[in-house]
Amino acid sequence: MSRRKKRKVPLTQRFREYRFFFLLLVAFLFPLVDRNPYHIDMLVTAGVFMLLASGLHVIVGYAGVLNLGYAALFAVGAYTFALLNLHWKISFWIGLGASAFTTALFGMLLVFPVLRLTGDYLAIVTLGAGEIVRIALNNMDSLTGGPNGLLGIEHPSLPLTHYSFGVDSAPYYYLILLLVLLVVFALCRLESSRLGRAWVALREDELAASSMGINPAWVKLSAFGIGGFVAGLAGCFFAAKQGTISPDSFDFVVSVTVLAMVVLGGLGNIYGALLGAFILSLLPEFLRGFEIYRMLLFGLALILMMLFRPQGILGEARRN
Amino acid sequence: MKSLAEFPVLNVENVTKNFGGVSALSRVSFSVHHGQILSLIGPNGAGKTTLFNCVTGLAHSDEGDLYFGDLLINRLLPHEITAKGIARTFQTIRLFKQMTVLENVMVGAHSRSRAGLWGALLKSRWVRLEERKLTFHAQRLLDFFGLAGKAHECAANLSYGHQRKLEIARALASAPKLLLLDEPAAGMNPKEKEELLVLLRTIRDRGITLLLIEHDMRVVMPVSDRVVVLDGGKKIAEGTPKEIQNNPRVIEAYLGRRGSGDGER
Is the Cβ of A221 closer than 8 Å to some Cβ of chain B? Predict the structure, then answer.
């Protein structure tokens, strides 16, 4: 079907494809042109947030579940890899899969309270779940190192060679670029599938969706599983790059920031989530000059957005 | 040998439903036979929609049994009931407004397709084939309802009459044996109502049994094989449209208390 549709509207579709490749080319060449490691590092952080935003986008934008504790899933991903690596010397590449699946399972556990609740109550439960994880990490000293966190996590290295990513930013940049591309590709496929339609239908009208044969519990479970999976990828990458993690990196502010990214770009639109993540993770850096007014300007920008473009920068993907 | 028409598709037996002391349905019994159009009429608050909700699993009856063929469906969940072959529309239109017309119908076929998470990610041959089949069937249904030209429009942009039709198309996409329509003619103009009558008969002639809630007697009377009248949660009459028209209790329920001829439309 998509192929036939393409032929019908070749111009806009082509433009979209070219725009995508153009962006990809710019992204690919960037570290070769701008060799400032600080800039590349900023973009790597932006990449991590892009992963997080696209994962949360599935939960909030598609399944329609307001999740205020997404940082907890990020933390589970990071600690899973850190512990696997520190205790059993598991390499980054295996850890990536292990973290993703562990976090997906953890995300699915969160669904059980979620299924019975809606609205404000739901938001409070997800918020609570997020805090519980952080507090648990803070207090299970013997396992997680408590507030000091875990140190000495191995940096990734290329298998079969002795090349280690080390502290150089460029390899991480390409790795996160690859991860973001893979995740976006997979999520786009899901979006246009039967499951994607079920997600949107559920968000639009849960009662009608269940009367159309959609099992709300199963569909929400899959959304949380996928949201968790992506957060697990991001967490594992984050742990491997930093080499050290502590509960501070996963507090409530992270959850809210990622949610703001998803909403800013346009709820229910993955490109919106990516754009939102890109902007909101770089904006504080650009506002560094204003230092003390930074958070003020940040807040002002969000309020202005809500007033003048409440549907987000790109708006909902399902247009016409 | 019995003909197919003698087998009840839906058996409602002594169904009772209370909402905290208010009795919405009390001991209602009737059955819908294969290939029939049965209309459920009665004043507002008579319990018609509550009965629909009990049949489709959105509410559970306090007492009494509901049989779909031989199958007891009292305790099934809505999506399970749809998978068994009962589909419905809603009194207040509940389309997926942000989705296209075509997507709405494709969601309707959810229980008739099976591609899951891995299917969507790997997009193997059978998944693509299933997608194409779904699209094809959805297109055909839209053709049938005269909505083919609007397949890629957002459902929210359709006119009221078209939205009502789309709801029926979406329900039919689940390939039901029994179709429940909650006031399908509400808000339609006379011409659209005429078309609706034709559509309803065509759907019936394709072997789908219909259970209808409707206020407009110009729709109910010509199209129904049988009519069941509810008032205050009780069944007060059942029979052919002719019998119902002349039934004194029905006239009292409609005219006696309301005072004006066609009270609600």
Answer: no
Is the minimum CB–CB distance between A7 and chain B shorter than 8 Å?
no
Inter-chain contact B121–A226, Cβ cutoff 8 Å?
no
| DSSP 8-state class, residue B100 | B
- Say what the ipTM of the complex is: 0.86
Q: Rounded to the nearest 10 degrees, how much is the dihedral formed by the CA atoms of A24, A28, A34, A36?
A: 110
* Gyration radius from chain B CA atoms: 19
pLDDT at res. A154: 86
Measure B20 CA to nearest chain A CA, in Å. 21
Cβ contact B7:B212 at 8 Å: no
Q: Which residues of B touch A196 (CB under 8 A)?
A: 120
Report chain A residues whose CB lies below 8 A from the CB of B113: 194
Virtual torsion, Cα B41, B43, B47, B48, nearest 10 deg: 30
Is the CB of B115 less than 8 angstroms away from the CB of A193? yes
Looking at this protein, which amino acid is placed at residue B135? T
Chain B: which residues have CB within 8 Å of chain A? 56, 58, 77-79, 82-83, 87-88, 90, 94-100, 103, 106-108, 110-113, 115-117, 119-121, 123, 127, 130-132, 134-135, 152-154, 157, 170-171, 174
| Structure letter (DSSP) for residue A156 | P
Name which of B115, B78, B112, B86 is nearest A202 in CA terms.
Answer: B78
Q: Which two tokens stand for residue A33?
A: 């042109």
Q: How far is CA A283 from the centre of its chain?
A: 18
For chain B, how many residues are written?
Answer: 265
pLDDT of residue A14 exceeding 80? no
Residues A225-234 have a mean pLDDT of 95
User: For strand B226-231 and strand B178-182, is the pairing parallel, antiparallel, or unpaired?
Assistant: unpaired
CB-CB neighbors (< 8 A) of B58 in chain A:
207, 210-211
Query: Which residue's structure tokens are 């899933």?
Result: A73
Q: A194 vs B134: CB contact, 8 Å cut-off?
A: yes
Query: Is the separation of the CB atoms in B65 and B72 below 8 Å?
Result: yes
* pLDDT on residue A2: 47
DSSP state of B34: T
pLDDT reported for residue A320: 35
Contact B37, B225 (CB under 8 A): yes
Distance from CA of A158 to the nearest CA of B (A): 27
